[in-house]
Each structure stands twice: as structure tokens, then as C-alpha cells.
Specification:
Layout lengths: L3 E8 L4 H14 L6 E5 L2 E7 L5 E7 L4 E7 L2 H8 L4 E4 L14 H10 L15 E4 L8 E8 L4 E8 L2 E8 L3 E3 L6
Antiparallel strand pairs: 1-5, 1-6, 2-5, 3-4, 7-8, 7-11, 8-9, 9-10
Amino acid sequence: MNERAWYVVQSYSGMENAAKRNLLNRVESMGMTDCVFNVLVPEEEYIEEKKDGSKVVKTRKSYPSYVFVEMIVTEKSWFIVRNTPKVTGFLGSSGKGAKPVPVPPDEINQILRSAGLMEKPSFDFKVGEKVLIISGPFKDKTVEISSIVEEKETLTVLIEVFGRYTPTEVSFHEVQKLATASE
């Protein structure tokens, strides 16, 4: 069975909110609320200065022509979304029956945080600290942190490969702190 994930849907330029409304109405009327969960058009506020010196707060689309949809892709849900008025198709789907590609979790989490729908996780990693990799090709390896990039939520860790330490970038959610100081 397909898993719940976020997908990017393309819409006509300037019609993102109309596509969102149409999609929400269509999902509700066709009883697909168990497959389509959230529809998001990320916006950001900015300050525009007028000629007279006054300032006005305005909003603009963070991703023009794109709508983000959290859903489980089934034949029916895929058909309903891509055939919604003002929707032109899925990003990452070449058409001809090809299913769309979900947005990677680290990318969608960044978008959700910027939209204010998700809090930034707090991690208190330190350079030189040893952590356990819990997913990916180096799962169950204990590694040392050599650098931290909080904005991207990534760590550079030193992984021993063929007797040499190789710097490798992993995301915060791929590691966990060790329970004890000893290995």
C-alpha cells in the first residue's frame, strides 16, 4: 500500500488558491478525505515601501504556480487531483500513467516550517559528540560529529570506510544521541 506523503501539484499562474479551493471541494464531494489530507499554498509576508515613505505589509506566493498536497496516492486519488480544475498536473510525473514522486521529508519539513505549520525541532548536538545513525546505508554505525549546519538540519559525521575516516552529511532525523557516554 502507498504511504502518506507530500506531493507538488502544478496550477495555472495566479490560480494557486483557486486550485486549492477546487481540490478541497472535489475531495470532500467525492469522499476522498481518507486519501487527501492537506492542501497548502505557502505564502510569505514582506514589507513594501510606498513613494510617500509609508510601509505596507503584503503577501506573495513562496512557490508560484505550485500547490502542495499531502495524500496517499491511489488510482482514484491520483485521478481526482490531476483532473481538478485549475490543476495542470503533478510535478515529477511525466504523464502517460506515471505516478508522481513525493517531496523528500527534509525539503517539505523546511517548507512547512517556513509556512508556520511545523515547529523547528530542537537538537543539541555538539561537534566531537558520538551519535548513532538510525537510517540509511550506514544504519547502526556509531560516528563522530565533525560539523553542524542548523539551517539545513544536517550534520557532517566521520564514517570509517576502508580504514579511513570519510566526512559524510546526514540529516538530524537520521541520527540519535547515544544513551551512554561509553560505546
